[in-house]
Structures are given as C-alpha cells and as structure tokens.
Amino acid sequence: MRSWQSPVVPRLAASGERPRVFDTASRTLRPVGDAQTGAARMYVCGITPYDATHMGHAFTYVTFDLLNRIWRAAGLDVRYVQNITDVDDPLLERATATGVDWTELATGQIDLFRADMEALRVLPPDEYIAVTEFIDPVVELIERLAAEGSVYQLDDPEYPDWYFRCRHGGGIGTISHLSEDEALAVFAERGGDPERPGKADPLDCLVWRLERPGEPSWDSTLGRGRPGWHVECTAISLQHLGPRFDVQGGGSDLAFPHHEMCAAQAVAATGEPLAEAFVHSGMVGLDGEKMSKSLGNLVLVSTLRAEGSDPMALRLALLAHHYRADWFWTSADLAAAEVRLDRWRRAAARPAGEAADATVSEIGAALCADLDAPAALAAVDAWAERTLNGVGSVPGAPADVARAVDALLGVDLNPAV
After folding, report:
1. N or C: which end of the chain has fewer CB within 10 A?
2. Are the C-beta atoms of 378 and 385 separated by less than 8 Å?
C-alpha cells in the first residue's frame, strides 16, 4: 500500500552514536541499532482506520520518527515497517454504526492519516502494509504454528475459530509485567475473550475468525474467515524484518496483550525473539480522561490543521512531552508551541548568531538519551534566546541550527506559507 511523501531530510555529519531507549520488557535503557552491520530495523504498529488521527496517534508516530531520525543521524541504514489493521471488529462496528461501507471508511481514514503524517513531517515507512493485502502470509504463519502445536481449533459446532496457545513462546507478563489476574482484566478490556467456552486457556488469543454473516472474509485452508489482530503484525514483521529486529514500537496500551502475543507467536514459529527491545509511548488524554470516540473527546490533527494551526507547532507541542509520559492535551500546549516556533524561526532567520556546534551536539545527545525531546527543545530554546539577544556573530550559524532542528527534530523553521 502507498504510504506518504517523505520530507527532505538535511544531511548532517554522522555522529556514530547509537541511541539508548527504554525497553519495557527488561525495564532498562538499551542501545538500539546494530553498530556492526550499520543497520536498524523497526516495526511500529499502525492504526485501525476509524478515528484518525487523534493526538495520541500523533504522539506515537512522532515518537518513533525521532528514533528513525537519530538512527539516520548516526549513519545507520534504517528499515521501517508499519501495518494498517484495515479489517477488525472496531472498524466494522464503526462502519455499521455510521452506515458507511467498511472499505470506504477505512480508505477515507487512511487517506486522512497519510495527510496528517505528511503535514507533521513524519518519515514514511519503507513498507506500509494493510492486513487485507497480506492474508496469504498470515494464513501461512498460522499453518506453521498449527503444525508445531501452538495453534488449535475451537470445538464449537457453529464457529470453530482458531486460537494461539498463549503459553507457547513465553509466559504471560514477559513484556508487560502484569500478574495473571491483571492480564485477564486487561485482556477483556482490549479485545480479548477470556470467558469464551472451550478455550484451552482464558488468555489464548484468536488468530483466525471463521466467517460470520455480513462480515468480510477470505478463503483459506483454515476455513473461510479473517485474521485475528495480533497474528497480522507477527506475520508482517517476520516477513519484512525477520526475527530479532531492533525495535517493536507502539503506544503503551499495546504492551499487553498485543506485543506479548506477537512476541510469543514469533518465538513459537522461529525459536528466536521477535525484537531486541519493546518501546512504548505514553497515553494522551483530554480533561482528565483517555481520548476515545465513545467519550467524544478526540482532538484530531486534521481538525486543528483545518482551524489554521501550523503543523510544526503541533509537532512541537507533542515534542514538549517525554515520549514515555502520560499527559493531557490542553489548548495551552498549542499556545506555548506557537510561541516557541515563532521564537525559533526569528532566531533562525538571522544571518549570524551563536555558533551552532554545541547546540547541535546537545540536541543529538538528548535524543540519544532515551529520546529526551524536552531536553533537546530546551537546548534550542537557549540558543534562540542568546541569538535573539545578539550573542554571537558567526555567519550562517542560524542556518546550521535550523538544518539540525529539521534533521533531528523534524521541525521546519522556514516560515509557514
């Protein structure tokens, strides 16, 4: 599937420094990216296209865009893969509730997501894959897991769906650190079916749902049906990145069950870990509540853009929060970002200013230290303040800082047209 147009990223001298990020599984900061091969491989779970693009989505994809950019600045060859869950229960339920064909709903929301990512200057994935165009490889993975005894068919005369044995490939809590009781509660909240009769384990997850009346389905050796949620990401990531890729990324709500199930399936299928590190961004809420369509409290990138907000101010508003923090969006976030953007642009427009090297190094060092975007922003703030106050007279220094801000933070300091 087509992704979106990539912004032009200014070239910087390769730093050679690998970033360290927080791995949810080990609860440690780990260097990511292969210094020996000069490569970095990342899979970030994509949207289910029915409420794109709210600020929680944007926070996640801007977070992993920072990692992509700092890897590139280190001179690594980055391979980035992202999926689209363009057939799943929430999408079908939304289509039914709104009276819109599910394919039309998905297509429109994916187009909107592309436009928002392009406006926010998020680097596109090398492979952008919809599950509906990846059915055969998903079926092949399920067949492989079935042959090894890791998948079974439910003894249900009406809907004998296929399930993955969650204990194969690793125990519950290996990434999320949830207890059994906590896992059961979260599983039920996030699309699982722990109460379904006939399952070998309440936490076993659906990998192939047999056809129901009125639902989309595909022919397969497993019976006519459609994939479960977790197995699609396992199949896509293994085919396009192989096992032991560097980073599996997404929002913190994906640590369980999604990433744990994907990781367990990969180990069961290959005998190797899915990823070296599992990295999660925080949740973004509004007025003390998690953003959700049901609560009617989504703040959409497209709405803010339509109201005249500069996408670079939106990006700066997101970068002002550390990626692992949970936080609440307010109008003050955007107002502060607009003031910051104006100050940076005024400093960058000067023909001369304080030398750039120290500030550029501070930005890179902050991002290498667990993607500390707030610290990177503070470094640019200090440089801009000094330059606007007439400190320094190095010709071209403002342009050098602007190039680094563009390359590393993804913020274009050219005035909005």
Report:
1. C
2. no
Q: Is residue 241 part of a domain?
A: no
Residue 78 burial class via C-beta count within 10 angstroms: exposed 0-12, middle 13-18, buried 19 and up: buried
Query: Would you place residue 38 in the very low, low, confident or very high pLDDT band (cuts 50, 70, 90)?
Result: very high
Beta strands in 162-288 (DSSP E): 162-164, 205-210, 225-227, 245-251, 275-281, 284-286
CA distances from 253 to 28, 90, 192, 350 (A): 19, 16, 13, 44
Torsion of CA 309, 313, 314, 317, to 10 degrees: -140
Which residues 6+ apart lie within 8 Å of 414 measured at CB?
345, 402
Residue 111 to residues 94, 125, 297, 385: CA-CA distances in angstroms? 17, 15, 22, 39
Task: Determine, yes or no, domain membership for 360.
Answer: yes
Six token digits for residue 61: 């994809």
Q: At what angle do helices 260-270 and 229-241 cross, to 10 degrees?
A: 50
Q: Name 233's Cβ contacts closer than 8 Å, sequence gap at least 6.
A: 43, 45, 83, 258, 262
In a domain, 386, yes or no: yes
Give me the number of domains the chain comprises. Answer: 1
Q: What is the pLDDT of residues 136-184, one digit of tens each?
A: 999 999 999 999 999 999 999 999 999 999 999 887 899 999 999 999 9
Alpha helices in 371-415 (DSSP H): 373-388, 397-404
pLDDT digit string (tens) for 91-121?
Answer: 999 999 999 999 999 999 999 999 999 999 9
Q: Tell me if 126 is assigned to some domain.
A: no
CATH classification of the domain holding 376: 1.20.120.640
Which of 208, 268, 266 minimizes the C-alpha distance to 237? Answer: 266
Domain span at 369: 298-409
Least Cα distance to 178 among 189, 168, 162 occurs for: 189
Q: Mutual orientation of helices 55-73 and 357-368 as an angle, nearest 10°?
A: 120
Q: How far is CA 320 from the centre of its chain?
A: 18
Collapsing DSSP to helix, strand or coil, 189 comes out as helix
